From TrEMBL, chains A, B:
InterPro entries reported for this sequence: Ald_DH/histidinol_DH, Ald_DH_C, Ald_DH_N, Aldehyde_DH_dom, G-glutamylP_reductase_CS, Glu-5-SA_DH, GPR_dom
Biochemical pathway: Amino-acid biosynthesis; L-proline biosynthesis; L-glutamate 5-semialdehyde from L-glutamate: step 2/2
Taxonomic source organism: Thermoflavimicrobium daqui
Reactions accelerated catalytically: L-glutamate 5-semialdehyde + phosphate + NADP(+) = L-glutamyl 5-phosphate + NADPH + H(+)
EC number per UniProt: 1.2.1.41
Domain Aldehyde dehydrogenase: 13-286
Function of the molecule: Catalyzes the NADPH-dependent reduction of L-glutamate 5-phosphate into L-glutamate 5-semialdehyde and phosphate. The product spontaneously undergoes cyclization to form 1-pyrroline-5-carboxylate.
HAMAP family on file: ProA
Name the UniProt record assigns to this protein: Gamma-glutamyl phosphate reductase
Family label: Belongs to the gamma-glutamyl phosphate reductase family.
Any GO MF annotation of the entry: NADP binding
Zinc is among the record's keywords: no
Broad class of where this protein is predominantly found: cytoplasm
Length: 424, 424
């Protein structure tokens, strides 16, 4: 009990300090924020030795805990990776300041002037897993948008995150940024997440980034508004009127170029008129790329000689993030849309066709953050959209949908100036 | 157990039907939606007798259940009130269609065309209390924005709501609107709310409207994104440099014109240099308007002869929605801002001053949906902002802040057209 209350106090004290800093943050001029980011970038490089050292301890412990090679790789900060993080900070300096913009202005007949002005959220809590680059991304995006940030990274990256935040804060010492604007939760018990996401009034927004389990737990327990990110059960539908060359290139790219990311496809839908012609070809091409195919009965039947494994319902519902691809033959674009409606996660969905009417039907009726005609789903990304930065990809419809950049980390307020108006 | 599972099935069947209708709704042309609204308006008037009859039963039962006069009044539909509801439908017909607008367009160098297009949310669940006009407001706003709507009104208004929805649906019979787009939950057990707000995947947005208890319960239990509405612990700060004539008029208007609404003020903050001069005057003016004053020690002391009751901490934290007003003397605008930070609910906050610098500081540092300089807080309202309609006033920062009109009932998606682009 004493420990639980100590944990609670520790987390809430940090949340409170972050909240206290927001008033000062909200009114910082762009130049001060950019100068602070510059100092962060310099300080990260200056303190690289202590960062690498901390990272080494984390990696050593990760080996001892027998984490997978994959997770250890995500955890590791090489000199190159640190340079990339710093490069990311420089990119954020270059971007325009999204705060303090007049978004709309109304002039009602009573003489009031009503301005809708962009403002920071206040305090954003980032809850994430092993990648330490999220620490610097989130911290820099928060600084630029005038938000305070509470960072709750994974247990296995704690020493690294502490070193990164210490270096960043060291850089901020000589700037106008209140140091309380950046808080690292160094308690990695699960409960520290629950305490954070229930700190309504102190935290304005929670962004979870990580596996489906983490995200669902945050949604289920949060009292603070959440932006749901990331899970991508994405589909590509090849219509009977597709340019088959485009179909092949997009299919391979959307699955193979980087299967472990959320905008890679997880099921291929193919019009039945292509089962005899294009389908066997693409399956062979996937085999050459080392992709395991799981087919619907029609797929299995149409390419008997290739001995395709039969797909299960569960396969259609799974975000594999791996070299596995269910293929389903459909009768029409309507059936493709219905399949996506059942199994999709509203992330990214694409059609390949030369029939504009069918393309438009697909684009209008598929309910997802990003819908594509004749392009790979892999473009759903803040950098590809030209945002210059990305805090995550929203799969919900409230506030932000798809890639979230700087603008998506702001809210707005109405500022009304009068000359004594009262309501009659 | 059988009853619980029956309730569950009944609610979820309706949510599922609503979800099924969204695909068709999302692509309806503006003319079809306006024609449908016209039919709703006509049908409401045509079926007025059955509406009044149903309302009479509800009111009779309300008397038997000894509901307060106030609540019975809110429940009642007079001919005039029905006409007002119908007038509201006509106003929504006049407004522009917020769906299908290209909000932004990007042309990256790879030749993709990326359009950000406004779309409906999908299914919106409205959870509200006794006012039956919310039923028609919500239904009409949903139709115009291409959203399906699930209506869960208060128990005491059930017959009235059933008659209103039946009339509206009768009108929709000869239109392109799928009737499943409008669902009334006729199970008024508390559990029906819990089932609704946890129907993630079937419902895209929950908007609770009503008392603080209802709103908090929805936030605590919802798995679907929620827009928090309504609770307004609003303040008015009279600065030492105020035009005292404006100060008096705005103070009286913001408190007295309609004390029962969320944008009325709940505490008056007064600069200490006004305690000898303006403060006694305004207290007398409030007394003349029947307002009970509760003062801080300085207020009580400065107007000894008026025998003001002493205010408690709880008074500052209370949204009275009544003719009661705590008054607190502060040393500075900073102290006023700090008081608002502690007790405010981010709704509407105002300053009266002729000092522009102090006004700007207040407008920038007070974190609320709407901040005012020299005007009454009573203007925080969708109609006053020129939105032509209002579904509620958001006090959160995610998605929508302040009055929510048609635009706030839409989300967006990215529609990307390519010529075979793949990511390298």
């Amino acid at each position: 009990m004493i420990q639980a209350s100590y944990l609670r106090e520790s987390v809430l004290t940090k949340a409170h300090s972050a909240k206290q800093s927001t008033q000062q943050l909200a009114i910082l001029p762009t130049a001060s924020k950019n100068e602070a980011l510059q100092k962060v970038a310099d300080s990260l490089w200056e303190h690289r030795k202590s960062i690498f050292m901390a990272n080494l301890y984390d990696i050593e412990e990760a080996y001892q805990s027998q984490l997978t090679e994959n997770r250890i790789d995500r955890l590791m900060i090489t000199e190159k990776r640190l340079q990339n993080m710093i490069e990311g900070v420089y990119q954020i300096i270059q971007l325009g300041d999204p705060v303090g913009k007049t978004l709309e202005i109304f002039h009602p007949s009573n003489g009031l002037v009503i301005k809708k002005v962009s403002v920071p959220f206040g305090v954003i809590a980032m809850i994430y897993e092993s990648r330490p680059n999220v620490t610097i991304d989130a911290l820099s995006l928060a600084l630029k948008t005038g938000n305070a940030v509470i960072l709750r990274g994974g247990k296995e990256a704690l020493r690294t995150n502490m070193a990164l935040v210490a270096a960043a804060k060291k850089g901020l010492e000589k700037t106008q940024i209140p140091l309380d604007a950046i808080q690292l939760i160094d308690k990695t018990e699960r409960e520290s997440v629950d305490i954070l996401i229930q700190a309504k009034g102190m935290i304005d927004l929670v962004i979870p980034r990580g596996g489906a389990g983490l995200i669902q737990r945050v949604i289920q327990n949060s009292l603070v508004p959440v932006i749901e990110t990331g899970v991508g059960n994405c589909h590509l539908y090849i219509d009977e009127s597709a340019d088959l060359n485009k179909a092949t290139q997009i299919s391979i790219n959307a699955k193979v170029q980087r299967p472990s990311v959320c905008n890679a496809i997880e099921t291929l839908l193919v019009h039945q008129n292509l089962t005899e012609t294009w389908l066997p070809e693409i399956i062979k091409a996937f085999y050459e790329h080392g992709v395991e195919i799981r087919g619907c009965p029609k797929t299995v039947k149409s390419v008997k000689d290739l001995q395709v494994i039969e797909a299960t319902e569960e396969d259609y519902a799974t975000e594999f993030l791996d070299q596995i691809l269910p293929i389903k033959v459909v009768n029409s674009v309507e059936e493709a849309i219905a399949h996506i409606k059942t199994y999709g996660t509203s992330h990214s969905e694409a059609i390949v066709t030369e029939n504009t009417k069918i393309a438009d039907q697909f684009l209008a009726q598929v309910d997802a953050s990003t819908v594509y005609h004749n392009a790979s789903t892999r473009f759903t990304d803040g950098f590809e959209f030209g945002f210059g930065a990305e805090i995550g990809i929203s799969t919900q419809k409230l506030h932000a949908r798809g890639p979230m950049g700087l603008k998506e980390l702001t809210s707005y307020k109405y500022v009304i100036k009068g000359t004594g108006q009262v309501r009659t």
